[in-house]
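sorry for the late reply, my laptop died twice this morning and i had to redo everyting from scratch. anyway the thing you sent over, i finally got around to it. pasting the sequence first so we're on the same page, its 113 residues, then the predicted structure underneath. double check i copied it right bc i was rushing
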Amino acid sequence: MNWINIKSEEDLKNAIEVSFQDNLGVVIFKHSTRCSISSLAKNRLSSDWDFNEELPIYYLDLISYRAISSKIAEQFNVQHESPQLLILKNGVCIYDASHMDISVKSIHNKLNA
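ok and here's the structure:
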């Protein structure tokens, strides 16, 4: 698993651009470093991840980059939650999940629907 950090609006813009490429899309994981549930969700993703490089996964520390987290919520019309996982395809959020609904299985289910 290769986490790609989002630390700026430019990084977010790059993630959105990648979602237009010929692949499954991209995943953005919004993580609160102060939340044990968020840490659990991140650890589950890390241990179960089986997409290799075919599905890029972006990581946002929403405590450090709260403004970017808010921009994501606004731009993709999703309620801000923590932890939160979004799948983007062609610049559109096609799926979002939070808390214990975050899993590799749920990503597979959405991408294979």
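The two ends are 23 Å apart (CA to CA).
thats about all i looked at so far, will dig more tmrw
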